[in-house]
Write a sequence for this structure.
């Protein structure tokens, strides 16, 4: 006698993606993606459908953040603000994020309190974020170099 398929295994990937879209914990999403190939694909699709992603409050590094942002093809709002747990993004992370397909579509980025970033990382990110309307760089140590890049690269900027 063959093994009967569990009810959850009968769900199509697009429905799994919809369900996973309600999960905000990146740890939980990582665990869900390790259940099986179908769930991994569902998590990837759920990330691709997200319009907003916030890492505030999460202990994230360059590689983890970059992997998630690269999967979020429809992303419009990105918050990588520092929190007490320490989102530890560096200039290298900003550069890696700047290569993601969604960067040209971002309308909002928050880098609030990111003390480990410099003009080098901000200029790389901002130069590709041409649809940006809202930018929060408060609590950073960027200089006029970043401000000039923002003025040159972000013609739609409303709030900074």
């Amino acid at each position: 006698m063959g093994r009967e398929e569990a009810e959850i295994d009968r769900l199509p990937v697009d429905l799994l993606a919809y369900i996973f879209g309600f999960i905000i914990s990146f740890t939980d999403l990582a665990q869900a993606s390790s259940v099986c190939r179908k769930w991994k694909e569902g998590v990837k699709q759920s990330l691709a459908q997200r319009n907003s992603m916030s890492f505030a409050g999460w202990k994230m590094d360059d590689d983890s953040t970059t992997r998630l942002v690269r999967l979020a093809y429809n992303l419009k709002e990105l918050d990588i603000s520092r929190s007490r747990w320490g989102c530890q993004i560096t200039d290298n992370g900003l550069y890696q994020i700047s290569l993601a397909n969604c960067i040209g579509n971002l309308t909002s980025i928050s880098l609030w309190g990111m003390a480990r970033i410099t003009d080098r990382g901000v200029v790389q990110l901002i130069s590709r974020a041409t649809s940006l309307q809202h930018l929060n760089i408060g609590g950073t140590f960027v200089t006029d170099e970043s401000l000039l890049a923002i003025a040159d690269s972000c013609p739609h900027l409303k709030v900074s």
In short: The first strand starts at residue 52 and ends at 54. The mean pLDDT is 88.
